[in-house]
């Protein structure tokens, strides 16, 4: 999955996470790969993925916070709300898309609608949104 849009001001461009192939459980967490671009250099790493409450919550890359995913279209996209206290003090809304998802498919369009709904719920507008994956090809 790649982070396509976010209301956060601090994310690096081209952030992605490769979901684990194994099913994680509370007793048996698994790892996932992640990365982002910094000054045209790819930074990559591995983190531990620990399922919390039926995968509605995920530990964030910073390992100090947890994001809630109120809308998930498996294999297509996820809309997340991340606590902003470790960033800028407000909750941030994120749109993650599967690398193989097409923006014109039904699931992706649903995610766009749910993303806009989450923006409203967090008292944010499209003016607050940054395109995180611009120029990542």
Automatic annotation (TrEMBL):
InterPro entries: Calycin. This is Putative salivary secreted lipocalin lipocalin.
